[in-house]
Every structure is written in structure tokens, then in C-alpha cells.
Amino acid sequence: MKKNGKGREMSELERIISALEPCTTVLLSVHKNPDGDALGAQLALLRVLERSGKRVFAHNLDPVPEIYRFLPGQERITSGPKVAGSYDALVVLDADPPRTGLFDGSYPARTLINIDHHITNPRIWPLTWLEPEATATGEMVYHLIARLGLPIDRETALCLYTSVFTDTGSFRYSNTTPESMRISASLIEAGADPWMVTEHVYESYSFKRVKLLGLVLGGVERSSDGRTAWVVVTDELFRQTGTTAEDTDNFVNFVRSIKGVEVAVLFRQTAMEQYKISLRSKGRVDLSQLAQSFGGGGHKNAAGGVMDGTFAAVRDKVIAAVERQIAVQLGAQSRS
After folding, report:
1. CA geometry: angle 334, 321, 122, nearest 5 deg
2. Distance from C-alpha of 300 to C-alpha of 329, rounded to nearest angstrom
3. pTM, full prediction
């Protein structure tokens, strides 16, 4: 760590605040297929940095999913494989930089900052603030705002509440902490509307999305001991229902809700012989290292990756690895 003017070691947060101070233009980006935490943190930080006098831009590879288009300022997030312009600072949130899908080693800024809470983040940038114990990256942005001494307005509170709310599964997941509840309470006091977030994220499925969910869950399978269950979403199912990849958000959690299941897996076809893998644990099985073995990453309870091959080959490899992980961490057990 570097020293501050008084000789005291500077925290990662302090170093990032110090690095941002002289910057006048800032670009914010998040991971591919952005979720509620990534977008909430991105939009909250955009608002706060602008209030401190900076010109702030937001660009992601993929557009904002429909269920998150209620977030204030989301229309300012541009998307696509190319990033235009140059900036004083680039801040990547809720992912390590390669997972933005935007940069191949060259960056449009001289100051590079990474803010993330995924334990699998390899810290490839010197200015990396990593808090694996944080419930969400939005929780980290909340503390950044507090360190700056800035008030949180209603719109910023709504963005941050969405971050924490979605990454805790509406406070149902085992990563929910007393700190995340205290932060959420303060955000509600600042004007965040819990029902607004709930309605948009969980109570506003389109008809075609529900049709897709029915077809996907109709094909659910599970292991002989019942501790692993999985579904697959194919290009053909998208074609039949007129849906897209963003319509599968949260599908894997329905599979995890099956009694006795410790790990749920969703395979989503992304090419003729390529599948995105989403893994969810009920809390007793650590998925982070398992996802890294598939070239992915994530949290203890939520992780993922991408694998090439036929569905049968990818499924057999992933399910075998999941079952080994369960056996190592929980021991042998027969299905009741």
C-alpha cells in the first residue's frame, strides 16, 4: 500500500478516491450481460461523480435488460463492442476488466480502476478495490459515497438498493448480512421504493418469457442423489417463444428452489457448440473455484463460465464436476 501525507497506509478505497480526484472525464463499464448489481452500482457512481464536477460516461458491451430500464439514468448507458473517445479514468465495476468484453489489453484511459466483490477477481490492475465479503458492488459504492461525505438522493438510493436487493435475491440468499440490511434500510430512508424494485425485477415478466420458463422447467433433470439439478435453454426455445438471452434472467433460481438440490445449473446455448453455464448454490457448496475451472468466475453461491462443445459433452463434464464438488464438501448422501 502507498502512504498518505501523514505516513499512514492508504486503503484501496482511499487510493481510488485519490486517483479519481484530478480526473475530469471518467468512463464506467461493467460485465457482459449486466445484472441489477452491476447496473445499480454503475448508475449510482455516475450520479455521484457528476455531482463532484466530473464528466461521466457509461458504456457496456450489452444493452440494459428490460427489467432494469426503470433505473434512473439507464438511458445514458451506451452499448456495443466499440468504445469511442478517450478519458482520464476508466472504472470497471462488478467484474475484472476482461469480463467487460470490451478491451483486449489497450484501454481508453490512463487511470485504470477496478471495483468488485467477486473473490475470483485476479486483481490485474494495481488500483483494484476488492471486497469479497461485500454483498454487492453497490454496497461498496455506498461506502465510497459515504467516504466522500456526499448525501444520497432518491435516485441514487434507488440504484444502490437495486444492487443489494438483486444480489441477495431479495434478501433470501445466504450472503445477506446485517450490514446489507442496515445499508438497505438507510437507502429506503433516502427514498428508495422497495415495491418499485420488486415489481420491475420479479413481478413484470412478459407473457413470452413465462412461456419460455415453462418450456425450460419442463425439461429439468437431476442427479441420482437429487443434490444437483439442471436445465438447458436452446436457440430453438428462443425461436419458439420469440425470446432472447435476457429473458432467462433468474431462471436458474427456480431450479435451485427444488427441495434437496444443493447446486443448480443452467446451460444457455450461445453458439452451435457453445454454452454459457450459470451455477447457483444454496450456500453449503462453494462454486467460485469450480467456475474458474470452466474459465469463469463469481461468488461462493453464484458463479458461471462458458464452455465449447456439444450439449451432451458440456453437460456431462459440468455435472460430473459439480457432483465431485458436492461430495468433497458435503460427503456422500443418498436422496430422501
Report:
1. 135
2. 13
3. 0.88
**Structure confidence by residue, pLDDT tens digits, 137-167:** 999 999 999 999 999 999 999 999 999 999 9
**Whole-number pLDDT of residue 335:** 46
Say how far apart CA 252 and CA 258 lie, in whole Å: 11
Strand ranges for 6-68 from DSSP E: 25-30, 55-60
In order of their start, the domains of the chain are: 12-201 (3.90.1640.10), 209-330 (3.10.310.30)
C-alpha cell at 157: 438510493
Q: How far apart are the first and last CA of the chain?
A: 52
Contact 192, 167 (CB under 8 A): no
C-alpha cell at 55: 464528466
| 299 to 120, 134, 174: CA distances (angstroms) | 7, 11, 12
Q: Are 260 and 226 in contact (CB under 8 A)?
A: yes
Integer-rounded Cα radius of gyration of the chain: 20
Q: Is 11 helix (H, G, I), strand (E, B) or coil?
A: coil
Which has the closest alpha carbon to 253: 281, 285, 293, 225?
A: 281
String of b and e for 30-53 (b: at least 16 CB within 10 Å)?
Answer: bbebbbbbbbbbbbbbbbbbeeee
What is the C-alpha to C-alpha distance for residues 264 and 280, in angstroms, rounded to an integer?
Answer: 5
Least Cα distance to 152 among 70, 14, 48, 16 occurs for 48
Q: Using DSSP, how many helices (H) and how many strands (E) does the chain show?
A: 11, 12
